[in-house]
Amino acid sequence: MLPFGPGERVEMRITYAGLLAGRASLAVEPGRDAASLRFVSVARSQGFFAWLFHFHVDDRTAAEWNPLTSCSLGIEKHLREGRAARDQVVRIDPDAGRAEVDDPKVAQRVFSLEPCVLDVLSAFFVTRVRGVPEQEALTLPVFDNGRSYVLEVRFRGRERLDLPAPLGPDVPTIVVEPLLAEGTGLFVKKGRLAIWLTDDERRIPVRLRSKVAVGSISADLESYTPPAAR
């Protein structure tokens, strides 16, 4: 059984240098057909930090994934960060090993892929499915922004955290680090990212820390809604 399903929702509070910078959410929805799931990531700037620096973020990324094959079917990004804007639609045919990319910033439109690649958002959820071994990196084939690469996710340690209900106090977690290619558009653009997941079969994301050129960005769980009863 998958550790997530339609109805699951993770809400996080984002801070920079201790100031509220925004909020983010991860949700699982039914896919476009009975055989797929849709993952939706949303991040929006809020609070004093956004007002002070006049830097506004409104990002939405949605990925389609087939749980039967564990292959990505495509991803759609609508990113608004300050004066920068990017709209991208990627359609993946895993059987044909082919991707079509609609993005003014990617010159090539059609790409040949190895079988069953993942988009960057589906790769995060597949990490939750497979788990991260302590002694070696989890490796996942990823296609993102017109580039194919192998994503490595490494185990970094364990920690117990006090979390909002229904998870509660003193929850065991594991810390993992995905070695992201620069410019993925998922949570951070550059720098190192650490992710805390509950140390159980659900592997719920409950904290993120990213060290950037100046300071660090943090995202901490505000609320968790479990999947609908299956």
Write a short abstract of this structure.
This protein has helices spanning 47-53, 120-130; strands spanning 9-16, 19-30, 37-45, 57-66, 71-81, 84-93, 98-102, 110-112, 138-144, 147-161, 171-178, 192-198, 205-211, 216-225. By secondary structure, the chain is mainly beta.
Describe, in plain words, how this protein is organized in 3D:
With 230 residues, the protein is mostly beta strands. The chain has one domain. Helix content is 8%, strand content 53%. A 14-stranded antiparallel β-sheet has the order 8-7-6-5-4-3-2-1-14-13-12-11-10-9. The chain is globular, with a radius of gyration of 17 Å. The N and C termini lie close together (10 Å). The mean pLDDT is 91.
